[in-house]
Amino acid sequence: MSESTAPKIQKWPFIVGDVALLLTAFYLVSRIEGEFGLLEAFWCFACVAGGAWIMVLPFLKEFQAKTDLTEARELADSVEKITSLEALAKRVESATEQWLHVEDRANEINTTSKQIADKINAEAREFTEFLQKANDTEKNHLKLEVEKLGRSQNDWLQVVVTTLDHVFALTQAGRQSGQENLIKQLTAFQGACREVARRVGVVVVEPQPNETFDPEKYQLRDQDAEPEAGANIIGLAAQGLSHQGRLLRKAVVVIEGEEVPQSAEAKPKSKAKTEAAKKKE
Q1: Least packed by Cβ within 10 Å: which of 1, 131, 183, 205?
Q2: Are 217 and 206 in contact (CB under 8 A)?
Q3: Are 170 and 261 in the same domain?
Q4: Backbone dihedral region of 208: left (phi > 0), alpha (psi from -120 to 50 degrees) or beta?
């Protein structure tokens, strides 16, 4: 619906009248000869005041029309709001009746939902107990499997360690024989066995050339002996072993000042020392 607006007044007739009165006042002032008396002043003031009034009159009329239109709109809005309040009161009354019905229905639903919740809680407790029993059974089964795997791992680890020890002893015996071909074959066989063991995580711990004694990695034949700090290793009596980074057994080494037994492997010399010894020979 289009919004009604206040009618606008044509202002040009009022402007013409205002100009006419001002020209009349100017004419009267220009025609006066002699003193400017009260009568002349009255007519000049009347012309100017009339012109001002004529100029302001259309704006006053428009303002009055807008005021009346605003009051009419506010009155119409008030009537519309009163009508809306009556309709709202009827709706509230209808909603109150429906709410009473809904409240009765809600009480019935609440009772039913409590019964359903009790059944769900009972079934949940039963299901939780069942899961707990199944979990305990599965844990026991897994525990047994882990224990079996642990025993199996210990068994094959013991087999690998024993095999490496026998191969080490066999290689040491071959070196004592002094036969170069036999020493090469046994050394190659020992390297192959160590490579196979390394694939399953078993690594041989041996001192490197020019390495000093480290009590965290090596031990002496005499466990009560206290070696000097920085003592050089000159031989290997028994190889050390580690499994997946965990030290199983420290290597038994021979340091300077100790007698190297025939069964001990001499410490590998560096390449420079070996070449110098060959030149001397």
Answers
A1: 1
A2: no
A3: yes
A4: beta
The whole-angstrom separation of Cα 194 and Cα 264 is 19
| Domain match, 182 and 88 both | no
Q: Which residues, including other chains, have CB under 8 Å from residue 244's CB and lie 6 or more apart?
A: 201
171 in a structural domain: yes
The boundaries of the domain holding residue 37 are 12-98
DSSP structure class, residue 204 = E
Q: Which residues are CB-neighbours of 261 under 8 A, at least 6 positions away?
A: 235, 237, 254
Question: Could you report the per-residue pLDDT of 54-96, keeping only the tens digit for each?
Answer: 777 777 777 787 888 888 888 888 888 888 888 888 888 888 8
The CA–CA distances, whole Å, from 216 to 149, 172, 220, 238 equal 29, 25, 12, 16
Q: What is the pLDDT of residues 226-253, one digit of tens each?
A: 777 677 777 777 888 888 878 888 778 7
pTM of the model as a whole: 0.42
CA distances to 44, 215, 261, 264 from 250, in Å: 132, 9, 18, 15
**Residue 208 is assigned to a structural domain of this protein:** yes
DSSP conformation class of 212: B
Q: Are 201 and 213 in contact (CB under 8 A)?
A: no
Q: Is residue 22 part of a domain?
A: yes
**What is the end-to-end Cα distance of the chain in Å, rounded?**
124
Paired tokens of 30: 């220009």
pLDDT digits (tens, 9 = 90+) for 158-197: 888 888 888 888 888 888 888 888 888 888 888 888 888 8
Is 120 part of any domain? no
